[in-house]
Amino acid sequence: MTTGVLYTVCCAAPSALRADALILAAQGRGWDVCLICTPMTARWLQPELPALAHLTGHPVRSEYKRPGEPDVLPSPDAVLVAPATSNTLCKWALGISDNLALGLITEAIGLRLPLVALPSLSEAQAAHPAFSRTCESLRSAGVSLLFSQDISAPAGAEADADGVRWEAALDELDRQLATCRG
User: Fold this and answer.
1) Torsion-angle region of residue 139: left (phi > 0), alpha (psi -120 to 50) or beta?
2) Mean pLDDT of the chain
3) How far apart are CA 40 and CA 180, in angstroms?
4) How far is C-alpha 96 from the chain's CA centre?
5) Mean of the pLDDT values across residues 70-83?
6) CB contact set of 93 (below 8 Å; sequence gap of 6+)
7) Partners of residue 61 on adjacent β-strands
8) How many CA atoms lie within 13 A of 4 on its CB side?
9) pLDDT, position 179
10) Distance between CA atoms of 144 and 65, rounded to whole angstroms?
11) CATH says 4-64+74-181 is which class?
12) Which one of 8, 9, 137, 156 has the largest count of C-beta atoms within 10 Å of its C-beta?
C-alpha cells in the first residue's frame, strides 16, 4: 500500500548529491516518489539522472513541459523540499516561479498540500534580514521548516552528508497527513 505520491524537490546544496538516500527512505515508508530538481541540481546530478529515474520509476523533471504536452508525473499528495537553499526559499516565499521546482512548490501552497522543507544554507545567509521574513511567510502559508539544529535525532540515527535527517522530514510529513486525514 502506498502512502501517496511525494514530490521531492532538490535544490543545489551538498545533500542533493544523496538524493538516492532520501528517495529510498521515502519509498521505505510507502511513498511513490517523484524527483524534481532545480536547474543547477539537474546539472550536478546529470550523470546520476538515469539511475534516479529508474529508482523512482518516473522521469526526473527539472524543466517546464511544453504547452499541450501531457504531464509525465502523477499529481502529488505531499511535497518535500530537501535540501532547500536560501535562493529557493526566498523566491518561494515571494511566489516567484521562474523554474519548474519553484512553480510546483508555489502551487503546492495553493493546493494546501502537506509541505516540509529542510533548509540548507550558511549562517551568513540565515542572518540576512530577508531570511527571517521568508521563514515567517512560508510558515504562515503552512510550510513546516525543519532546521538541522532543531531536529533531535533518535538514538542510533545517522545524519546524511551535511547533517540532513531525512527521517525527521518524513516524520513531519506523516504527522501532517495524519492531521489532514484525521
Assistant:
1) alpha
2) 90
3) 33
4) 16
5) 96
6) 133, 134, 137, 138, 141
7) 36
8) 17
9) 83
10) 28
11) alpha beta
12) 9
Q: What is the pLDDT of residues 119-156, one digit of tens each?
A: 999 999 999 999 999 999 999 999 999 987 554 443 34
Contact (CB, 8 A) for 133 and 156: no
Instruction: For residue 66, give Cα distances in angstroms to 28, 39, 120, 138.
Output: 33, 16, 31, 29
Q: What pLDDT digit, counting tens, does each position of 48-71 carry? A: 999 999 999 999 999 999 999 999
pLDDT in tens, 3-19: 899 999 999 999 999 99
Q: Which helix (H) or strand (E) holds 131?
A: helix 129-140
The set of cell numbers assigned to 157 is: 540515527
- What is the signed CA dihedral for 3, 32, 11, 51, rounded to 10 degrees? 150
Torsion, Cα 80 34 52 2, to 10 degrees, reads: 100
Which neighbouring-strand residues pair with 116? Answer: 80, 144
> What is the rounded CA–CA span in Å between residue 143 and residue 6?
15
Q: Given this model, what pLDDT does residue 155 score?
A: 37
Which cell numbers hold the place of 165? 535527517
